[in-house]
Every structure is written in C-alpha cells, then in structure tokens.
Amino acid sequence: MLIRLGKLRYAWVTAAPGLFMMPICIRAGYLNITKNFLPHKLYLLAGISVILMALMTIVITLAFRRWYALVRIGRTVADSWPSRPHCPLLQLSRVKVFPADADNNNGPAI
C-alpha cells in the first residue's frame, strides 16, 4: 500500500520487522518441532508447525516479490479494486445505534 501511494521511503518500516522476524520464527519453529514435538510423539502439532512455517515463508516471499514489482514500475499506480465496494456490512455503518433522545437532540439517550 505504501509503495502504491508513492511512499517508498516508508516501506522499510514494514519490511524491516518482517525480515527480522521471519528467520527468528522459522528457527523457533524448527527448535519446537525437533526438541518438543517429535521427542514426545506429538506428530499433529509438528505437522501444524511445519504448515505454519511454510505458509509464513510463502506469504513473505510473495509480498516481497509484489513489492519489488511495484518498485520497478516507478510511478504511483491506482488499483483496479473499487474504492467503495458493495458490501452489506458497510451499510450498517450508516445506521444509528443509539437514537437521539427526544428532549436532547445533541447525542444519544443515556
């Protein structure tokens, strides 16, 4: 989002923690699997940890590939996604939760 808005100089604010946390989480997952789950025959937990580590790697890799592609464009890009998609839940934000008090039109009835 920052790159699309032309704020590339602020992208490191999200990229640096991601680059810092990924190897730490992968290492912690590996140690958790090898030291805790497999010795105690907790194969389901080991499998779930492997899946989570793989998904985290996929998400980070795809995000950086997308960021790299956006940086190569070199200009601000507008999304093809509509700015206000039709969603019934967005209509709920227009409904007043607390009706105004009949005597006091300045706020909700308490």
Care to describe what's here?
The protein is mainly α. The protein has three helices and no strands. The chain has a domain at 8-79. The protein has helices at 12-37, 43-73, 88-92. Helix 1 (12-37) runs antiparallel to helix 2. The chain is elongated.
Descriptors:
mainly alpha, 110 residues, single chain, elongated, 0% strand
Condensed summary:
This protein is mostly helical and 110 residues long. It has a domain at 8-79. The chain is built from 3 helices and no strands.
Helix content: 55-70%
Calculate the mean pLDDT score and round it. 78
* Largest sheet composition: none
DSSP summary, beta strand count: 0
Give the N-terminus to C-terminus distance in angstroms. Answer: 41 Å
Our estimate of the beta-strand percent is under 5%
Produce the secondary structure layout.
Elements: H1 12-37, H2 43-73, H3 88-92
